[in-house]
Amino acid sequence: MDIEQLVRQELADGRHTPEGWAEPVQRVQAGVRRRRRRRYTMTLSATAVVIVLVGAALVRPLANDAPPAQTVFEWTAEPATLPELDRRDPRPDARPCTDDALGNQPWHERTGDTLTVLVANHRIERCTIPGTSAIIATEIATGVPVTLRGSLPLRHAFDQAPATIDPGEPARIDVQVESCPTPLYRDPRIVAGGREVPVDLGPGCGYSASPWYVQAPLINTPLTVTMSVPGTVRRGTTLVYDVTVRNAFPRAFSLQPCPAYQQTLAGLKSTYRLNCAAKSVPRHGALTFRMRFEVPASAALGRTTLTWMAVVADGRVAIADLSNGGVPVEIIE
Fold first, then answer.
1. pLDDT averaged per 10 residues, the chain (length 333)
2. What is the dihedral of CA 247, 284, 286, 67, to 10 degrees?
3. According to the UniProt record, where is the region Disordered (predicted)?
């Protein structure tokens, strides 16, 4: 037997087989799977701890979040001044409003000798009424239309010009007539979105108009306010009514500093400090405040509207019965 045969014989002998690592690929894969399971288990455990801690923080009552011992608070005679009201910032200009964008049914509001014309945006996009305002009137002597550009200043600091209006929002313009014994003009009208809109001013010696503007809306607090009011009140007596403030959010709404409120009835108004014996409106809770309004003996008889608005320190407001503009009350003898 030569050397080659001896080597083959020894290699074929099972007694000399070295002990190796059985199925190395499978064992590597099994180790990878074990490590992945350990990491996954640790991740789930850590996530569960975070969820428990966050949940505990969310459900733990905040400071001043405990429901007050009472929920009805009597009126206190503490006159106050309203903080400066917070309003929406001016908008950037948008595309010009066209004739078809502005509604065909303008409406009017009169304050003394000033007539305010309101025209709403009936399109689905925001638009701007650009340029300066003007009034077109007919010269009585000749029957020829003329353009008058008398300028009126904006009446309020919160009026914003030019008028950039959202769908459904009205643009406004203030107009006045210059009265005289012998009028020079008649049939005044303004230009809105490319068309002429008549204004009820009558004949005069001249007309003036403000720029087109929008009244920036107030910024509301996350509270809902309703009033419970008697249907009638005798003049010369005190109207007693309740205001209920509801907080639908999962956090208490602080009443510190204590808000001021303003109530109006029949053109009269008064401003007081709220009774803040409760430091906050509890989460998912409500507080009721008893109100008083002294109705003077000289108040006009008939149907009128009661309004109520609280203002917190940062200028945000909570307006009672906002969608209805207040609650109707009849003043009787």
1. 46 47 48 55 45 37 52 93 93 90 83 90 90 88 91 89 92 92 94 83 92 92 96 97 96 96 95 95 96 95 96 96 94 95
2. -120
3. 81-108
